[in-house]
Amino acid sequence: MRNWLCDKLTPVDADTSHAEMSRWVFLRLLGVVYLAAFVSLWSQIDGLIGSRGILPVSEFLDQWNANTDWLQAPSFCWLDPGDPMLHGLCAGGTMLSSLLILGILPGLMLGLLWMSYLSLTVAGQVFLGYQWDALLLETGLLAIFFAPWGFLPMPGRPDRSAAVIRWLLRWLLFRLMFAAGLVKLVSGDMSWRDLSALQVHYQTQPLPSWVSWYMHQLPGWFQSASVLFTFVVELGLPILLFGPPRWRHASCLGIAGFQLLILATGNFGFFNLLTIALCVAQLDDSVFPAALRRWLTPQQPPAGSGGDRPAWLVLIWCFAATIVLLSLEPFLSNLGLDRHWPGWLREARRTVAAFRSVNQYGMFAIMTTSRREIIVEGSADGKTWLAYEFPYKPGDVRRPPAIVPLHMPRLDWQMWFAALETYESTPWFQKFLAHLLQGTPEVLALLERNPFPDRPPLFIRALVYEYRFTSREERRQTGAWWQREYRGSYSPVLRQD
Predict the structure, then answer these.
(1) How confident is the model at residue 14 (pLDDT cuts 50, 70, 90)?
(2) CA 42, 32, 272, 11 torsion: positive or negative?
(3) Position 97 pLDDT exceeds 80
(4) What distance in Å separates the CA atoms of residue 443 and residue 440, rounded to the nearest whole number?
(5) 331-362: buried (b, 16+ CB within 10 Å) or exposed (e) per residue?
(6) Distance CA 41, CA 94 (A)
(7) pTM of the entire structure?
(8) 333-362 average pLDDT score
(9) What are the boundaries of each domain within the chain?
(10) For residues 20 and 158, is the Cβ–Cβ distance under 8 A?
(11) Contact 119, 74 (CB under 8 A)
(12) Pairing of strands 482-489, 494-495
């Protein structure tokens, strides 16, 4: 009776004895992603949300405390909103990620990692509000139930509950990719519909790489063909994830290759590696080299020997049904089909939204057709102005765009969003300028070059320039990667009190 119930509760296309290697590799890739996320944030956290940062956590939690309870802002920072807690979470996340990569207590490590990163994401406010932060939390939550819970578990010990969670990871990968293509079609943006979007994308994306410059020089027919290729990958390949194994493997290979192209032509932090990890989770063991399989699984137990109890499988299925139900509303909202959902489901969505682990996806629905850059300048006398240089965002037109794999320079990224808005609608930017006037070391550490190393300037201002990539001929003559034109003031001139 027990084996019959376990068989009925296992997905029909899932042979858990043939997917252990993919789980083993997936969990280590996820450990690398977590490690990159924590280390990258750790290097910036004082200047972003520390006690002397742009948006201190203590001030943020005080506002929440006055209006709601901690369940709507779940974070360990409620225990201590100071710098020791922030550094402790980053240090702990770094250690836990390393242990996950080594395969030590993976289930426990994943649970602690999810709670730690959720705490930092809530505390990070606008600086940790990107889709890949949400994707990491959603993937991390599912991985808790996907991972084995032994001390040093090795492949070759299949369990049936993992097959259910593997399907949920497939559903997540499908939503991520299919929504990316869907929003481009339903947004009404003509640049996607007339296949011209990539003629501007490489130079208008948040942080281009030097490869982007070369891609931008390619002829128009190639850019149009690349848009068609994008739609094939984002709308066609995700459907194949639910087909036979060969179709699923081809889909994962295509999606992973697409992510490598994005990785080379833009800087999106750990997003690309995380998406590739989701692809790996969908591979069968036959994809991996036989020598590697023999080395890691010298004695493969017979199929169906997993030790799942029927009660545990029932709980896993209830969890899976809840995740699918909660994820349908944000997924279908891309088509405007979320207006008639029952009230109880909307309330459930609001309740779990604070945990950022069942999310809506869809990137670049509207293509930015021109690049506005904010250039921040200071002056000691109100006449001579010197520019602050950021590590990665465009500034000096002769500096080549950088490739920054896995690192997420959050201030540089946020400056791109600020340029799309107004000074009045970006309160964090106003605080950033105030810190430059004060010469706050933690904030200055986020910059590449401070033109006032001895004492802060008396005046500060922000100007807007329109940037575009140079042509081959322009770069040959000037050595510049960018050409820029002044467009006006972004902020008023601020003065020290």
Answers:
(1) very low
(2) negative
(3) yes
(4) 6
(5) bbebeeebeeeeeeeeebbeeeebbbbbbbbb
(6) 10
(7) 0.93
(8) 81
(9) 2-299+306-353, 371-495
(10) yes
(11) yes
(12) unpaired
